[in-house]
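SAMPLE LOG
Freezer: B-3
Tube label: C17
Construct: single chain, 88 aa
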Amino acid sequence: MKDVIIYTVDYCPFCKKAEMLLKNKNIPFKRIDISNNENEYREKLGKYYDIKGRVTVPQIIIGGKRIGGFDVLEKLDNSGQLETLLDD
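STRUCTURE (predicted):
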């Protein structure tokens, strides 16, 4: 299974939804809370993943590739593509 990383802030309801979706599917993930240095991390994420415009959270990374936020994660899950994406 590919590594899953979620960049979050502590007040974000979509971050919590993404975490719950992964927990309910028993998908292990690493949570990186950027709340303490939010602006700095958002800028770094934007540069590293070449994100145009404002960097939102959660930012979900699967196997080193940024897939986006909760809405994309939910669509991947509903379509059955999430498991395929997670396979090594």
